[in-house]
Design brief:
The chain has helices spanning about 10-25, 30-45, 50-60, 95-110, 130-135, 175-180, 195-200, 235-250, 295-305, 315-330, 335-350, and strands at about 5-10, 75, 85-90, 115-120, 140-145, 170, 180-185, 210, 225-230, 270-275, 330-335, 360-364. It has about 375 residues and is an alpha+beta fold. Strands 2-3-4-10-5-6-7 form a 7-stranded mixed beta sheet, sandwiched between helices. It has a 3-stranded antiparallel beta sheet with strand order 11-1-12. The longest helix has 19 residues, at about 95-110. The chain is globular and about 60 Å long. It starts with a strand and ends with a strand.
């Protein structure tokens, strides 16, 4: 079944998003980074973590409630390891912090073969796949995880949400092999809360066994969701635990206090972790049939997708296809419900709203 989308010029999108962030007290540079990230997400069809979601999170847990502080600087803390950096974000805007962190990890990987940046006192960076995708497009293997802004996932065999959706994101430089970077990016819940909010806007039911209501019963009604469940039972639960434990080593807060009122002396902030590997740093050189590293990567992927598996999708392929549609359309693609949400944002910050009549539309 096709869906109608309106084609919004990216410049128009970026201008409104930047104005909205500046209206909330963010600097021009922070607002530009937020708009850049939102456009990149929408360019790749990430409707769960676009500007609507970003500004909604900021309203609920960010600048409006003290969870994120505009116009602050990241503090770089002493570290005795040359390829590692430890940062105190001071609750700076997550997108701006994450862009700086992934760039720095790439610089460290250029020098040492591998680089890592850990970030404490952070505010949620939204779609982790976007940061590793950009690094992969530049030729690096990249990974990030974070603790989510809110504990809204019930542990396996539990009944109370004490985990975040806690995503893991890997990016691989495979454009030469398959035409796009492979990006393996997933929340550790069956679906992300951003998907629930998207389904609320669109009036769409959730998949079965993805969420529970206030009584702990499974529900497919997005309006009744009170908590999410891990994917793959104990497996998704274990992957979610990784983020919480890594965050704990960095300095992260107790999950059930995150983005909430807290007792004196406690913290309420998420933590980020970034790692970037230069492919040359893991190049063993002994490839079969005289292949080089890039050729071997291509051969491995072709073998996986052979033997009758030719119709299988690679992670990142749907995002690449959406990006092709956006380029062909000449603008970002938004549904009518999303246009209405942008108009609410425009009203909040005193900007002119968008009329459906000013945009051409297409069905996808």
């Amino acid at each position: 079944m096709s869906e109608k989308f309106y084609i919004v010029p990216q410049q128009k999108h970026d201008a409104l998003v930047s104005a909205a962030y500046q209206h909330r007290g963010y600097t021009e540079d922070e607002a530009a980074q937020a708009a850049r990230f939102s456009a990149f997400a929408s360019h790749h069809g990430i409707r769960t973590h676009n500007a609507i979601k970003a500004l909604h999170l900021d309203h609920l847990f960010g600048s409006a409630t003290g969870g994120c502080t505009p116009a602050v600087e990241v503090e770089k803390l002493p570290c005795r390891f040359a390829a590692s950096e430890i940062w105190n974000a001071n609750k700076k805007l997550g997108q701006a912090t994450a862009y700086e962190a992934i760039d720095r990890a790439c610089e460290l990987a250029d020098e040492y073969g591998i680089g890592q940046v850990s970030v404490d006192n952070a505010f949620h960076y939204l779609w982790g796949g976007g940061y590793v995708m950009e690094a992969a497009k530049r030729g690096y293997i990249a990974y990030t995880n974070c603790t989510a802004a809110l504990a809204e996932v019930v542990p396996f065999m539990g009944k109370y949400p004490t985990l975040g959706t806690n995503p893991h994101s890997w990016g691989f430089p495979t454009t030469d092999a398959v035409g796009f970077p492979i990006v393996i990016d997933w929340a550790t819940s069956v679906i992300a809360m951003g998907r629930v909010q998207q389904f609320q806007r669109e009036g769409t039911p959730l998949p079965a066994n993805a969420a529970v209501d206030a009584e702990g019963n499974p529900t497919t009604d997005a309006n009744l969701v009170k908590a999410l469940v891990p994917f793959g039972a104990h497996k998704g639960y274990g992957l979610s635990l990784i983020n919480e434990i890594v965050g704990a080593f960095i300095g992260g807060s107790l999950p059930t206090l995150r983005s909430r009122e807290i007792p004196a002396g406690e913290k309420r902030t998420p933590a980020f972790y970034f790692q970037v590997i230069h492919p040359d740093a893991i190049n063993g050189g002994a490839f079969a049939q005289g292949r080089d590293q890039a050729g071997n990567v291509k051969a491995v992927i072709e073998d996986i997708l052979g033997h009758g598996n030719e119709n299988c999708l690679l992670p990142g392929q749907l995002e690449a296809r959406w990006a092709e549609r956006v380029v062909k359309a000449g603008g970002l693609l938004f549904s009518e419900a999303e246009i209405q949400a942008f108009n609410e944002i425009a009203q909040e910050c005193g900007e002119q709203g968008w009329s459906l009549a000013e945009f051409t539309c297409e069905s996808v």
